[in-house]
From TrEMBL, chains A, B:
Keywords: FAD, Flavoprotein, Oxidoreductase
UniProt xrefs under InterPro entries: FAD-bd_oxidored_4_C, FAD-bd_PCMH, FAD-linked_OxidoTrans_Type4, Oxid_FAD_bind_N
EC number: 1.-.-.-
Broad enzyme group: oxidoreductase
Protein name per its UniProtKB record: FAD-linked oxidoreductase
Organism: Leucobacter soli
Needed co-factor(s): FAD
Family classification: Belongs to the FAD-binding oxidoreductase/transferase type 4 family.
Start and end residues of each FAD-binding PCMH-type domain: 46-224
GO molecular function (one): FAD binding
Length: 467, 467
């Protein structure tokens, strides 16, 4: 391929002029204009400087951009709302950022209980559109108000309700994808069951923009769920909280099972002042939305919390339950107020949650670094938030070491370096340690088969092609 | 590759001797011994004669067999319990059949609510093992008593409960796979959420043995569901039944929504004599397993059935509900008593169910062929059963024409040629008509990347390699 670094100034100018002609009102190319598109929320310090940012509105425009990139061998970094936490949308030098932020259409079809969405639509916008028809799109990242469906699909995003209702891939029935060579394909559709050919829909969900650019999705909607009952339990030790969570997860299906440690509780209480118990070491928020008027699952969870020594159990009203769920969602921005974050997304088999928490406490101590711990505990997916002062290089070094050690710890416990945020560019160094060289090589074969030039999101998930 | 047809007798004898040395007590090679392994339940008339049947017990033995096949360029047809309905396990001339029927281990881990299973385990055996721990493996093909988990994974099998609980892929968390070159890889594990690397688990589920041989799976279990309430509704016309089903599927989440037409009702009643109403044109069995003591979803369904003109609505006891579910499961063998079957598995968006049924009635008339119609109606997945007398070649011709026309009809309605049985070898001629040449070509690239010699299940899903 004729990679970006092989490009002379004249080549770049010529390619850019061609792109500007293709999308006259939808290309940003000055340094000031491209700056906000160099990084996603992971704030990768090694972000490149792109040649341009393309802002297509239609599938045809995406196709034109990708075909142009393929002709010139120019890297394409697909970007949703830029809220990614793994550097999956970090720009690369001389490439383009293909932002789908203008692609925001949504059509709900109540008859098939599906919606057809463009990838730039925000998760909250899809939820609102579904709600107008009494329907519900379950996957709910904590960032649902600011993250896009395209980004959700790229990372196979989860969220709070996933413990009962599953993740993004469980709701994507169909996709339109622009391939690396500029062809557009359509996969699946409003069919609940379809096994004709390889399961390519499932392959693209979670492929982080490395195999194609999603330009449209058909997603499954559910009837709106009943109002959940929620309970909060406060523990004097993380071990006890983790043991209670493991017992619950093994026996019942809560609709919510979330966790915050003392650091997160403190930060959220500073932000929201809603009466969280700052004396507790751990806060667990549990919910059930089944239709049992006796609330047996709630009663069972209360009994488990009590038996594991909860110091306080709060059976909430609907409003208080919603407030506490909001508090849990606010944890990342709340902790972010204390410093720069390195945001982990490690998962473990649920019975090993206690060991993970204990190990992270050790890492925090060893590295003299603050690590807040929040989790979608009911599916073993956790977000240790490594906090550091960006003005202190030594602190940053220690934080980066801790960030890596957390991933290695999760892998040593039979876990994963990413439960729902993706590998992106930031976690790639730890990927082989989890999945092994053979599995990485098999993934690379698929990548090479679909993107032989390696122009799609180079450096994310897979090593960038040699130039 | 050195394909089977390029093999001389000496080569074959030499290769076979080598295989016998590798698995001394686990190779069948006489004509009589291999005969039962030439076809699955689809009874493909073009089945080949394999060189041998291998019956490994362990992953290492599978690996040895596949490595042997790779060295000799000999096709490998993986086989579970042989209950496939699309010819996915049809033997090929000079290849081997790799039957996993002796690989039957299962270990349930209640702490992670998962089971680790070998692929030859029957679905019913997994269900029984889970039940010993108060757990449940939801995917329940009608053939659950005789079909294997390996086959379920190969086809991403569905079943009756899938309308609420999803299909096989929704329950497979981890896989061990022997690749075409004889390497063994492990993917995923007892983690509910894991997005590290490409979603290869999801790619292998439903790949019909064309990308690798599954030797172990980690599947997710649920707590046992509550006892469902079930209602049966009998209609004087299929249009009305279909309209009622569409309305229900758009608004609520039943745990069961099944359909049988008059031909199926008659055949099942002949077999079971349980008081099915032979005067009805359509029978709908619906269920709800939520915990609402008022049974509001059941009441809503009754109201919908009534409004759409049901001639009889039967609110069942638990025992009668189970009997009627069993009746629905017995439909395929019951209709099979009337002749040879060509078993379709077409799906449509649910609002088009009525058009599909009407179209199939026209095809039956045009082709002067009996077509019974049963369906997992709540997810639009239907099984038109084309019945013919195998002793009458003209009838067989008409039946085969009807079989193809049903698939073309489904595709014309925005549907699929297979909802849960797979494409296998029998439906391959219709695959491109549904997914298109570009999607087929993308699938082929992935196939070629993982199985460059084309030795894994040649002719299933993809055209066999040119020899």
């Amino acid at each position: 391929m004729r990679g970006a670094e092989g490009y002379g100034t004249a080549d770049r100018a010529e390619a850019l002029a061609e792109l500007l002609a293709l999308l006259p009102d939808a290309v940003l190319a000055t340094a000031d204009e491209v700056e906000p598109y160099r990084r996603d929320r992971a704030l990768d310090p090694h972000a490149g400087v792109p040649l341009a940012v393309a802002l297509p509105r239609t599938t045809e425009e995406v196709q034109a951009v990708v075909a142009w990139a393929a002709r010139h061998g120019i890297p394409v970094v697909p970007r949703g709302a830029g809220t990614g936490l793994s550097g999956g949308a970090t720009a690369v030098d001389g490439g383009i950022v293909l932002s789908v932020e203008r692609m925001r259409d949504v059509r709900v079809d109540p008859a098939t209980r599906t919606a057809i969405v463009q990838p730039g639509l925000l998760n909250a916008e899809l939820q609102a559109a579904a709600a107008q028809h009494g329907l519900w799109y379950p996957p709910d990242p904590a960032s649902f108000e600011i993250c896009s469906i395209g980004g959700n699909i790229a990372t196979n995003a989860g969220g709070l309700c996933c413990v009962k209702y599953g993740v993004t891939v469980d709701y994507v029935l169909g996709l339109e994808v622009v391939l690396a060579d500029g062809r557009t394909i359509r996969l699946g559709g409003p069919l609940v069951k379809d096994v004709a050919g390889l399961p390519l829909v499932k392959l693209f969900v979670g492929s982080e923009g490395t195999l194609g650019v999603v330009t449209e999705a058909t997603v499954r909607l559910l009837p709106a769920p009943p109002t959940p009952r929620r309970i909060a339990a406060w523990f004097g030790s993380s071990e006890r909280a983790a043991a209670a969570i493991s017992e619950i997860a093994a026996a019942i299906r809560p609709s919510l099972l979330e966790y915050m440690d003392r650091t997160a509780i403190d930060a959220v209480e500073d932000l929201l002042a809603i009466g969280l118990d700052r004396s507790a070491e751990a806060f667990v928020l549990a919910g059930s939305d089944d239709l049992d008027p006796e609330g047996r699952d709630i009663a069972r969870m209360v009994e488990v919390f009590r038996r594991h020594g909860a110091i306080l159990i709060e059976e909430t009203t609907t409003a208080r339950g919603a407030e506490l769920a909001h508090a849990r969602r606010a944890a990342i921005p709340a902790v972010e107020a204390r410093g720069r974050l390195l945001l982990s997304d490690v998962g473990v088999p649920i019975p090993r949650l206690g060991e993970l928490i204990a190990g992270i406490e050790r890492i925090a101590e060893d590295r003299d670094t603050c690590i807040a711990f929040i989790a979608h505990a009911g599916d073993g997916n956790t977000h240790p938030l490594v906090v550091f002062d960006p003005a202190d290089p030594a602190a940053q070094d220690r934080a980066e070491t801790a960030y890596g050690e957390i991933m290695s710890l999760a892998v040593s416990l039979g876990g994963t370096i990413s439960g729902e945020h993706g590998v992106g560019k930031l976690k790639r160094p730890w990927l082989e340690g989890q999945i092994g060289s053979d599995v990485l090589e098999i993934g690379q074969r698929i990548k090479d088969a679909l993107d032989p030039q390696g122009i799609l999101n180079p450096g994310a998930v897979f090593a960038p092609p040699a130039r």
